[in-house]
Design a protein that fits this description.
This protein is an alpha+beta fold. The protein has 4 helices and 9 strands; from the N terminus they run H-H-E-E-E-E-E-H-E-E-E-H-E. The strands form 2 sheets. A 5-stranded antiparallel beta sheet has the order 1-2-8-4-5. 24% of the residues are buried.
Length: 173
C-alpha cells in the first residue's frame, strides 16, 4: 500500500488548520497585545493615552506618521457605555474605532464633525440605551481601541494641537 496519499492528506489537513488559526486567531492576538500595551501606559482601560510624537526609535502604533499626534484609548464597554469626547482642531483630525479582531468599524474626521468638538457614545447591543442627544455607535466587540489622530502642519502649531488633544476623553457613563 502506498503511503504518499496519506502524507498528502495529512499535509492538506495541517495546512487548513494553520490557515484557519492564522485567519481567525492572529487578529485577536495582535489586538490583545496592542490593548495590553496601551492600557498599561494609560493606567487602565477607558483612559486616554497621549504618547509623544512618533520617531524612528519610538513606534507604539503600527506605521505611525511623525506629522500626526496620536491619542489612544483601550475601551471596555461590556458593563456600561463609554462617552468619547474631543475638541476638533482646524487641521486634519480623525477618530477611528477598532474591534477586538482589528476591524475598523467606525471613523469620523474633521470635515464630517462640522463642529469645534465631538461627543459620541460607544456601547454594545446590550448596553446601548440612547445617548442623550449624542450619536450612539454600537461596537461589534466589548473591547477594542479608539485612536485619535491630529495633523501637525507646522512646528508652530504643535503646542496648541497637543493641548487640544489632551482634552480628548473616553470615560464610562
Amino acid at each position: 500500500m502506498k503511503t504518499w496519499p496519506m502524507w498528502i492528506a495529512g499535509t492538506i489537513v495541517l495546512a487548513a488548520v494553520f490557515h484557519i488559526l492564522t485567519i481567525f486567531a492572529l487578529p485577536y492576538g495582535i489586538m490583545d497585545r496592542a490593548m495590553a500595551g496601551i492600557a498599561a501606559q494609560a493606567g487602565g482601560v477607558n483612559k486616554p493615552l497621549y504618547p509623544e510624537p512618533a520617531t524612528a526609535a519610538a513606534r507604539g502604533i503600527v506605521r505611525p506618521s511623525p506629522d500626526l499626534l496620536y491619542t489612544a484609548c483601550v475601551y471596555d464597554v461590556g458593563a456600561r457605555p463609554l462617552r468619547i469626547t474631543s475638541p476638533v482642531p482646524d487641521t486634519y483630525w480623525s477618530l477611528s474605532m477598532f474591534a477586538a479582531n482589528t476591524d475598523n468599524f467606525f471613523v469620523v474626521n474633521d470635515r464630517q464633525a462640522n463642529a469645534g468638538s465631538i461627543e459620541i457614545i460607544l456601547a454594545t447591543d446590550d448596553t446601548a440605551n440612547g445617548g442623550n442627544g449624542a450619536p450612539v455607535v454600537v461596537a461589534p466587540s466589548s473591547r477594542g481601541i479608539i485612536l485619535f489622530r491630529s495633523l501637525i502642519a507646522s512646528d508652530e502649531e504643535r503646542a496648541s494641537i497637543d493641548a487640544m488633544r489632551r482634552q480628548s476623553g473616553c470615560e464610562p457613563l
